[in-house]
């Protein structure tokens, strides 16, 4: 048996969410044979349950709030934006402390500059993949809106938007009449809104991942059901058990989102990965009501997004153990507010969906090689921007793995920054 015959593929990619599928596609483009392995079908975990935003406008990461009133509001669970499970607080406190330190104005700006090359390419890289997959219509170029109930909050939002002018972000400020013209069925006493124009939106994020996975298969890729925790280093390569057999490749990529720790911890790496849980439920629009854009009701802490299945009501974040039972309190808190501003009928699913967002305290993902294992690579920890950054991440990692000049400096995303 020759060296080549010992390997089923050039690369194993563990994880068939938006990150893993995009890594697989970009490696494929560069001539690599790739096997995609997951316990579920593509796009059925974290990638399924999000607001459907390709967030070109989000150049400043979501930092830890510094305002005392806001901190008190969050700490006492009086906001649907953030909810703590108190029994989990001792476990998450060291991570929150580091997150707070990383959220100083200077460090937050550095995080923004480090993430900018990925954010800037978010829509264009998606557009490229959608065209190749034959689904350009998936991207809706209508942007999204943040609606504010008080004049004070709207003034602060306008000030924050203008601070992004150096990044070339396009936006419009809407008064109540302009907001009503763009969203005729939206009610409520809103003082105004910021309409972010650069982001694209997707009405079925999980469906988009499946479209990309379909392209991967058409180009000769293979997808198997397997257990990522069986990943093992062997002679000159890596193996994993999938579909009842052992499959081998020269290299492996761990793109398991909030489950990435199941692999890297076994290999001796310590990464401060936390999980922010989130919920959504689909609700039928009542009568002939139409929502044209995703709309965030900022002071009430929820988002309404027009999706293929209906209007998706999404919540803020919940700090709880990843595998704890669901507690969709935030859905129950926000649904009455949502019904007050938009005509909604019955819930399409009675049990809200719950997902987990993989987050790192310095607000940068891990993208790059394992420091101590040859042929092993990582791509996880994209905070709230997995859908946004999937194609850009796939391209960057594939360029690194194939010896091409990366389109962005990968140093800020190195796993070695955690020791």
Main traits of this protein?
globular, alpha/beta, 20 strands, single chain, 419 residues
Describe it.
The protein has 419 residues and is of the alpha/beta class. The protein is built from 11 helices and 20 strands. The strands form 4 sheets. Strands 5, 6, 7, 12, 13, 14, 15, 17 and 18 form a 9-stranded mixed β-sheet that branches. Strands 1-2-9-10-11 form a 5-stranded mixed barrel. Helix 1 runs parallel beside helix 8 (205-218). The longest helix is centred in the N-terminal third of the chain and has 16 residues, at 105-120.
**Content-based structural category:** alpha/beta
Instruction: Summarize the biggest pleated sheet.
Output: 9 strands, mixed
- Gap between N and C termini, in Å? 39 Å
Helix fraction by DSSP (H/I, runs of at least 4): 25-40%
Number of strands: 20
Strand content: 25-35%
Tell me the number of helical segments per DSSP (H or I, 4 or more residues long): 11
Oligomer: single chain
Structural shape: globular
Uncertain runs with pLDDT below 50, 5 residues or more? none
Radius of gyration: 21 Å
Global mean pLDDT: 95
Short synopsis of the structure:
The chain has 419 residues and is an alpha/beta fold. It contains eleven helices and 20 strands.
Topology:
Elements: E1 9-14, H1 18-29, E2 34-38, E3 53-54, H2 68-75, E4 82-84, H3 89-102, H4 105-120, H5 122-133, E5 144-148, H6 151-162, E6 171-174, H7 176-182, E7 192-196, E8 200-201, H8 205-218, E9 222-234, E10 237-242, E11 245-254, H9 261-264, E12 274-285, E13 295-297, E14 302-307, E15 310-315, E16 317-319, H10 329-341, E17 344-347, E18 353-359, E19 366-369, E20 376-380, H11 386-401
Parallel strand pairs: 1-2, 1-11, 2-9, 4-16, 5-13, 11-20
Antiparallel strand pairs: 3-8, 5-7, 6-7, 9-10, 10-11, 12-15, 12-17, 12-18, 13-14, 14-15, 19-20
